[in-house]
Amino acid sequence: MRHVISILMENEAGALSRVAGLFSARGYNIESLTVAPTDDATLSRLTVVTRGSDEIVEQIVKQLNKLIDVVKVMDLSQYSHMEREMMFIKVGVEKNTACEAVKRLADIFRGNIIDVSDKTYTIELTGDRSKLDAFVNALKDYRIIEVVRSGSMGIARGEASLHI
Amino acid sequence: MELTGAEIFVECLKEEGVDTIFGYPGGAVLFLYDELYKQHDKINHILVRHEQGAVHAAEGYAKATNKPGVALVTSGPGATNAVTGIADAYLDSVPLVVFTGQVPRALIGNDAFQEVDIVGITRPCVKHNFLVTDVNDLATTIKKAFYIASTGRPGPVLVDIPKDITTARCEFHYPKEITMRSYNPTVKGNKRQVRRALDLMLEAKKPVLYTGGGVVLSGAAHQLTELAHELGFPITNTLMGLGGFPSMDKQFIGMLGMHGTYEANNAMHHADLVIAIGARFDDRVTGNIEKFCPYAKIIHVDIDPASISKNVKVDVPIVGDVKSVIIDMLEELRSRSERPDAAALAAWWQQIKEWQGADCLKYNQDVNAAIKAQFVVEKWWEVTNGDAYICSDVGQHQMWAAQYYKFSKPNRWINSGGLGTMGFGLPAAMGVQMAFPEETVACITGDGSIQMCIQELATCLQYHLPIKVISLNNGYLGMVRQWQEFFYQKRYAMSYMEALPDFVKLAEAYGHVGMRIEKVSDVEGALKEALALKDRLVFMDFITERENNVFPMVPAGAGQNEMILV
Ligand SMILES: Cc1cc2nc3c(=O)[nH]c(=O)nc-3n(C[C@H](O)[C@H](O)[C@H](O)COP(=O)(O)OP(=O)(O)OC[C@H]3O[C@@H](n4cnc5c(N)ncnc54)[C@H](O)[C@@H]3O)c2cc1C
Ligand SMILES: Cc1ncc(C[n+]2csc(CCOP(=O)(O)OP(=O)(O)O)c2C)c(N)n1
Ligand SMILES: [Mg+2]
C-alpha cells in the first residue's frame, strides 16, 4: 500500500542523508521525498511517500523513529489527511493554436501561467498527484520541455497534527 | 576559563570517568595526543598496532564492564581502519565512543591530505555520529556521544573532530545532564503488557525462556535467574546471551540456533509460549522463518521497538529495559496467587529430558588420536573453574568455545556474533585484560582468525597483558571447510591454510611464551602451565583434528528442529 509519512527532524547537516540512507540501506522504496524547515527554524519537516506491506511500513516508522535526529514521525495514511504536490511545466507554444489551447487547459486545471516567452509558457499547478498526472497527460499533444514536481506533502485534517 | 579543543577533549573524558582509551596517532590528532601526553597520569592511552585493534579492544573493554569503550584514531586511513570495529559494535550493540581526527574545517571537501568523509562512511553502521564544526559545541557533543552510546539500545557513536577545532579556544563547561527532544529511550515496560505476559506465562503448558545479549547489556542476569527459578521454565540462551543465566543450572537447556543444542531447538519448535528477553530473532537462531515456532505465542521484551516484530510477529510486545521489566514481572507474579501449571510443566520437562538424552554435545577423545578442539575447551573450563574471561575469534573454535565453556557469570563471554569478525578475539582480550588486570583472560582462536590481528601481540608485550591465547589450529578455515564439506561436495576452495607460520617462534619473536601441543596427554598440563605463568602472555598452539565438524547444525533453510546431529 502507498503510505505518506511525515517526519519532524532536527534541522541539522546530515539529517536528510540519514533518512535517505535508511531507505536505501534497508531496501525501502521511496516514491517521493520533500523537505524544508518549519516555522521553528531548528526543525525540518520531511514528507516521504513510500509503498510496502503493513509490516514493512511498521518497520519503516520504527527505524525512522530510531534515528537520533528524528523527533517525531506520523504515518498520515492512518488519518484522514490532505496531500498536495506542486508542479512547474514548461510547454512550447510556437504555433498560435498552441497558445490558446494551453492557456485553456491551464484554466481548466486551475493552473497559473507564471512565465511567457515567444516560444514557451511556464505553468504552475498544485494538486494531488493524480491531478498533476492528468494535466501532464492533457498536454501530451504539445511540446513539453520541462516538468518539475515537488513531490507530495501532506497534513492531517482536523485536530490531528504532527508537532512537538 | 578558556581551554583549547584538545584540553576540552581530555576534560570531557575525565568528566565521563574514562580511565582507559585505545588509539593510534596521526597528523589530524596531534594536538589531542599532545594533551594526552601532558595528562598521561589521568588517562591511560593504549597504543595498538592497527586501528581495527583499537576499536575491538574498546569493545572488549565495554563488553566486560558494560561501560562505554573509547577509541581515538587519526583522519583518513586511521578512520577507515576503524570501520570494521565500528560495524562490529553496531551489530552487537556495544557502547562505544570513537573519536576520529579530521582535516581542518577550511579543507573539508577539498580532497585534502588524509581526508575521508568518515561521518558519511559510517552513517549506516553507527548509532549516531557527529562532525564538530564549532569548538563551542565540542563539550556538549562529547556529552551527547556518551549518553547516546550507553543508553537505550547501546551502540557505537563516532565524533569527528577537525584539527583546527583542537586548537581553537572557548569557555569550558561540561553539562551535568543532557536531554534530547529527539532521543528518549523507553526504560519502563507498559504495566498492562506485563500483566498480559503474566497471563500467558501462567497458562502455558510448554513455555521456553529465550534470552539474549540484552540481558547481559542490561546487567539483569541476577533478575533473570530469579524469574526463571520462580517460574520453573526451561531456558535457552543465544550466542550473545551466554552467561546471562548460569549454564550449570538444571533449568538451562543450552544455546539455541544453528549450532544450538538438540533440546533447545526442539523445545523452541514445540513450545506453546516463547518468552524472548533481550534477543532479536536473528536468522542464525530462527533458521527458516516460515518454520519457526509454529505452535507458540510470543512475548518479546526489548528496549528497541524496531527489534520487535521485525523478523517474527509477536503477540505481546514489551518495550523496555530487561532489568526493569523483569522486576515488574516478578512483582506481578508475586502479587498473584496462581502459579504455572505444575502438571503440564512436569510433562514438558519429561519431554525435554528425552531430547537431552540424545546427548548432542557428546564427542569421543581417543587418547592416541588427534586432539579435539572440544576437549581443549572443556579442559580449559575445568582448570579455570569456569571463571575466566573468554574472548573468541570467529569460526568453528568460536562455536566450540560457546558450547563447551560453561559460563556461570555474565560479561565473561566476549565474541563477535552479529558481524562475525575474524580478528576480533586478541584485541578484545586486550581490552578485557586492561579492565581486569588480575583476572584470567583467554583468547580462543583459530589459525585463520589469529592472523587477522596478530600485530597486537606487540601491544600485549608493551602493556604486559598476560593473555592466554588458545589457538585451535586445524590448518583450515574450518568453518568454511565444514560448509564446503556438507554443501559443496568437499570442494575445499581456498579454505586450506597453506604456509602457516610457526606460531611458537612467532610468539617468541614478539617476546612472549610459545607452546605447541600435539598430544592429548599434554593438553591439561599445558593449560595449567600457561595459567601458572601469571604475568606472561602464553600462546598455546594446539594442533587439533583437521576435519572436525561443529554439531549439531541446522542447515541453511531448515527449520529449528531439522538438525544434523553427527
Ligand atoms: C559463526 C557464527 C555462528 C553463529 N551461530 C549462532 C547460533 O548457533 N546461535 C545463536 O544464538 N547465535 C549464533 N550466532 C550469532 C548470531 O549471528 C547473532 O549475533 C545472535 O544470535 C544475536 O544474539 P541476540 O539475539 O541475543 O541479540 P544481540 O545481538 O545480543 O542483541 C541484543 C538485543 O537485546 C536488545 N537490548 C539491548 N539492551 C537491552 C536492554 N537493556 N533491555 C532490553 N533489551 C535490550 C537489543 O535491542 C537487541 O534486540 C553465530 C554467529 C557466528 C559468527
Ligand atoms: C574478516 C572475516 N573474513 C571472512 C570471514 C568468513 N569466515 C567465517 S569463519 C572463517 C574461518 C575461520 O578460520 P579459523 O580462524 O582458522 O577458525 P576455524 O573455523 O578453523 O576454527 C571464515 C573465513 C569472517 N567471518 N570474517
Ligand atoms: Mg582453523
From TrEMBL, chain A:
Coiled coil: none annotated. It holds the Pfam family ACT_AHAS_ss. Residues 4-78 form the ACT domain. Belongs to the acetolactate synthase small subunit family. Dimer of large and small chains. GO terms for molecular function: acetolactate synthase activity; acetolactate synthase regulator activity. It comes from the Bacteria. One of its GO terms (cellular component) is cytosol. It catalyses: 2 pyruvate + H(+) = (2S)-2-acetolactate + CO2. GO terms for biological process: isoleucine biosynthetic process; L-valine biosynthetic process. InterPro entries: Acetalactate_synth_ssu, Acetolactate_synth/TF_NikR_C, Acetolactate_synth_ssu_C, ACT-like_dom_sf, ACT_dom, AHAS_ACT, AHAS_small-like_ACT. This is Acetolactate synthase small subunit. Pathway: Amino-acid biosynthesis; L-valine biosynthesis; L-valine from pyruvate: step 1/4; Amino-acid biosynthesis; L-isoleucine biosynthesis; L-isoleucine from 2-oxobutanoate: step 1/4. Its EC number is 2.2.1.6. Catalyzes the conversion of 2 pyruvate molecules into acetolactate in the first common step of the biosynthetic pathway of the branched-amino acids such as leucine, isoleucine, and valine. Keywords: Amino-acid biosynthesis, Branched-chain amino acid biosynthesis, Plasmid, Transferase.
UniProtKB/TrEMBL annotation, chain B:
Residues 4-120 form the Thiamine pyrophosphate enzyme N-terminal TPP-binding domain. Pfam families: TPP_enzyme_C, TPP_enzyme_M, TPP_enzyme_N. Residues 393-541 form the Thiamine pyrophosphate enzyme TPP-binding domain. InterPro entries: Acetolactate_synth_lsu, AHAS_TPP, DHS-like_NAD/FAD-binding_dom, THDP-binding, Thiamin_PyroP_enz_cen_dom, Thiamin_PyroP_enz_TPP-bd_dom, TPP_enz, TPP_enzyme_TPP-bd. It catalyses: 2 pyruvate + H(+) = (2S)-2-acetolactate + CO2. It is an enzyme of class 2 (transferase). It comes from the Bacteria. Keywords: Amino-acid biosynthesis, Branched-chain amino acid biosynthesis, FAD, Flavoprotein, Magnesium, Metal-binding, Plasmid, Thiamine pyrophosphate, Transferase. GO terms for cellular component: acetolactate synthase complex. Pathway: Amino-acid biosynthesis; L-valine biosynthesis; L-valine from pyruvate: step 1/4; Amino-acid biosynthesis; L-isoleucine biosynthesis; L-isoleucine from 2-oxobutanoate: step 1/4. Belongs to the TPP enzyme family. This is Acetolactate synthase. It comes from Thiothrix fructosivorans. The lineage of its organism: Bacteria, Pseudomonadati, Pseudomonadota, Gammaproteobacteria, Thiotrichales. The gene is ilvB.
